[in-house]
Amino acid sequence: MPSCRAILLLIALLVSANAVVRASDDADALAVVVGKTSAVTTLTLDDLREIYLRRRRVWPDGVSIVPINLPADDPVRMRFSRRVLGRTPADLLSYWNARYFEGITPPLILRTPAAVRAYLQRQPEAIAYLPLSEVDDSLRVLLELRD
User: Fold this and answer.
1) Is the full-model pTM beyond 0.85?
2) Residue 64, CA atoms < 13 Å, CB-side half-sphere
């Protein structure tokens, strides 16, 4: 029969292992965000896909949506594109070339999470994604994406 001390040690190890897994999940998690002044409070994954493929370009209140991407070679954008759009940024080149002739432009590109945060704070119509660790209290999280 295991001692009480052995059982407590086993419980402590399990709790510790669970915390490490959760921390790893948070490190890989992406947050879909808007600025605090945005009228948008909810969003589905399907809505997000339509917005980033520019099939949906207007919020319910009639304001034009401004989706923001990180650069195509950014690992965060790669994860977002695969998870939400089912394709890599390179796979989308022909899609955007075809949209160009329809007068539809791809999402705005900002170089850094800091630039994304600053833009979202000033532009309530904008939406973006960031690593969850880059989200601060100036932003509203609409969705969390985990692999």
Assistant:
1) no
2) 6
Spatial CA neighbour of 71 closest among 89, 57, 95: 89
Fold of domain 30-145? D-Maltodextrin-Binding Protein; domain 2 (3.40.190)
Predicted confidence at residue 28, as pLDDT, reads 85
CA distance readout (Å), 98 to 8, 73, 103: 62, 21, 9
Considering Cα of 8, then 10, then 11, then 13, what sign does the dihedral take? positive
Which residue type, as a one-letter code, is found at position 55?
R
69: phi then psi, degrees, rounded to nearest 5: -115, 155
Check if the beta carbon of residue 130 is closer than 8 Å to that of residue 26. Answer: no
pLDDT at residue 24, as a whole number? 44
